[in-house]
Design brief:
Helices cover 83% and strands 0% of the residues. It is an all-alpha fold and 148 residues long. The chain has one domain.
Length: 148
Amino acid sequence: MPDPDPSSEIISILNRPASERLREYKYRFAQSVVFGLPVIALQYLGPILGGPEAGRWVGMLQTLLAGWVMYVGAMGMLVEGMLLWKVTTDAIIAALAIGIYLICVVAVVHLFVTGRAWFQPNPFHWTVVIIMGWTATKWFAGSRASAS
């Protein structure tokens, strides 16, 4: 018996019902809100609360929190586009957010290594806002489509 084609197995997994996709966007949105709101709060309140070392610690906390948003919210959308060998809007949005995130991580590492900010403030908050906005839009659109 010949081995099944792995690409057809991937396609069958990725061709899931609309209700499942809706649940995924709802989950991604919820995770991005729970872990993204502290990133946004740190963006504006961190420098006030942290004193002279605020840039380092705010950056480190934002790296961890926004990293979870990238993992849960963006990575699935990017990998799905890559597995399908298609340029999807989801993949473009995810790649944009992950690209900004990676630049921010390099800036935080630079700050820890040299003690000088590469650029300030880090736009970590934009990464979570992008994912929050996109997943909310997709969840809302999917909810409206399934209701009608």
